[in-house]
Amino acid sequence: MAAALLGLIAGAIGPTAALGRAPLSDKAESPSVATPSSRKPVKARGNAPAKSVSKGGAKTAAARRAAAKAKATDTPPLPGPVRSEAASRVIAWVGSAHDNGTLPYIVIDKQAASLSLFDAKGTFLGETPVLLGIGIGDDSTPGVGAKDLSEIGPAERTTPAGRFVAKFGRAFGRQRVLWVDYANSVALHAVITTHKTEQRVERLLSPTPDDNRISFGCINVGTSFYTKQIRPLFLKTGGVVYILPDTKPLDTVFPRVRLLPYLAPTAPAEQVSG
């Protein structure tokens, strides 16, 4: 009788329940795959650590930026470049006499093969090496601007000295260059790399000015300095270019430099801006 009763109970509740095990189902087979209705949304408890780390990282980054800004503010301005006496005299004269008027200007020291750039107020903006005409001399040969390049001899390939009002204009191949002396085809432009054997870029990068004489008379400047500094400054209004002599006395090329001792000195305009 008891055995029959136990059999009836086992048949009613099923064999798995009788053994103390949970009934099998789809959810039991794959507990890690939860349906949207069964998964509870994770609130602040799960996201709190990431949020606090984000704030901490932002604060750290802000602290680094503030420290870098304070350091930049405390850093004294860079000293001006070491220049020849002739270049220093011309720069001081232009600044004192305001010979440039309201235009930006450039001072080129041929013997040092260097270029100094200034804005219209006389603020020093930077200095860079240049390539110059292979010929030593301070005058252009008459009619040289009308000759083909193949007709210009080495002695005629000079970069003339003097004061020039320069403006951007077209050259061969629709290229825009800064014309320094248009009549004699003397321009200032980015370094030319057409003839690899001339090694113009390498000459610009060399530590000595002795190998910076290679052009037909034009002034070659590094591409980055030309596109980022000179072109934006001179593109709309042009400017003044002062080219120091190779052989002539400085006072012969720039007679008004003699007035420098009688001119009131200007505020130091040679500090690097920014």
Q: How would you describe what is shown here?
A:
The protein is α/β, with parallel strands linked by helices and 274 residues long. It has a domain at 85-262: L,D-transpeptidase catalytic domain-like. The chain is built from eight helices and nine strands. Strands 1-2-3-8-6-5-4-9 form an eight-stranded mixed β-barrel. A hairpin with a 4-residue loop joins β1 (105-109) and β2. Residues 55-65 have a biased composition (Low complexity). Residues 22-83 are annotated as: Disordered. This is L,D-transpeptidase. It comes from Sphingomonas glacialis.
- Roughly what percent helix? 25-40%
Major sheet: size, sense and barrel closure?
A: 8 strands, mixed, barrel
Label the overall shape. Answer: globular
- Which CATH architecture of one domain would you pick? Beta Barrel
CATH homologous superfamily classification of one domain = L,D-transpeptidase catalytic domain-like
Characterize the quaternary organization of these chains.
single chain
Q: Which strand order does the major sheet show? A: 1-2-3-8-6-5-4-9
Along the chain, the helix and strand elements come as HHHHHEEEEEEHEEHEH
Radius of gyration: 39 Å
Structure summary, number of beta strands: 9
- How far do the termini sit from each other? 106 Å
Structural class per helix/strand content? alpha/beta
- Residue ranges: pLDDT <50 for 5 or more in a row? 1-53, 270-274
Arithmetic mean pLDDT: 78
User: Quick one: CATH class of one domain?
Assistant: Mainly Beta
Question: What is the CATH topology classification name of one domain?
Answer: L,D-transpeptidase catalytic domain-like
Strand content: 15-25%
